[in-house]
Amino acid sequence: MNWLLDLTPDEWNAVRLSVKVATVAMIASLPPGILIALVLARGQFWGKTLLNGLVHLPLILPPVVVGYLLLLSFGRRGPAGAFLAEHFGIVFSFRWTGAALACAVMGFPLMVRAIRLSIEAVDRRFEAAAGTLGANPLWVFGTITLPLILPGLITGAILSFAKAMGEFGATITFVSNIPNETQTLPSAVYTFTQVPGGDAEALRLTLISIVISMAALVASEVLARRVGKRMDIE
């Protein structure tokens, strides 16, 4: 255990940055994730299949391709990147914020799918009953639908977090591998595998990454079950 936790300052920075990036990516993805999941679960409109395909595209595209598309779009010379940098001073390329954006994009399909399945499982008679009592749709969603989909929301959020912890291809393509700025756990593992004698450090960071990701998945399962049991009791 001491060997596992005896990290150098650079290794600790990689661990902290990975957790920070994954957390920011997860939180930033939640509002659009809920909205898109609701649209896909309840909406009937032309182009729904196309929207669903676009949402899930990062799952089937090579991560390097996703990173390159982000670089073209949100790089300093990209249309979105240039606009954000000029008008708001927001820069994504080669910054930790760019790593969070790449991780959010890669984890978004997992989040949306989990939330969508939860929304589709909701008995709409509860929502209809609230509507007949005069509640507006936003109030119905906040007081009826959202509590009912909470287990799926938790699962989707944690899956997104776990995916972000392991993201490598899109991140390194978009923001490179800069120590203390964009070097997350996967990037640090890659770096150590390229250095003679770095096998021990690579193995240590790999084990830490596995522990964090597994802990997140177990936590999501436990939380989802507890919330589900509490809802059944109520």
From TrEMBL:
**NAD listed as a keyword:** no
Please name the GO terms that the record assigns under molecular function. molybdate ion transmembrane transporter activity
Name one cellular component (GO) term.
plasma membrane
Which keywords are on file for this protein? Cell inner membrane, Cell membrane, Membrane, Molybdenum, Transmembrane, Transmembrane helix, Transport
Primary localization: membrane
Question: ABC transmembrane type-1 domain: which residues?
Answer: 15-218
Q: Which residues cross the membrane?
A: 20-41, 53-74, 94-115, 136-159, 202-224
Topologically, how does it sit relative to the membrane?
Answer: Multi-pass membrane protein
Belongs to which family?
Belongs to the binding-protein-dependent transport system permease family. CysTW subfamily.
Functionally, this protein is described as follows: Part of the binding-protein-dependent transport system for molybdenum; probably responsible for the translocation of the substrate across the membrane.
Q: What is this protein called?
A: Molybdenum transport system permease
Which species does the entry assign this protein to?
Answer: Mesorhizobium delmotii
Q: What is the lineage of its organism?
A: Bacteria, Pseudomonadati, Pseudomonadota, Alphaproteobacteria, Hyphomicrobiales
What would be the name of the gene that encodes this protein? modB
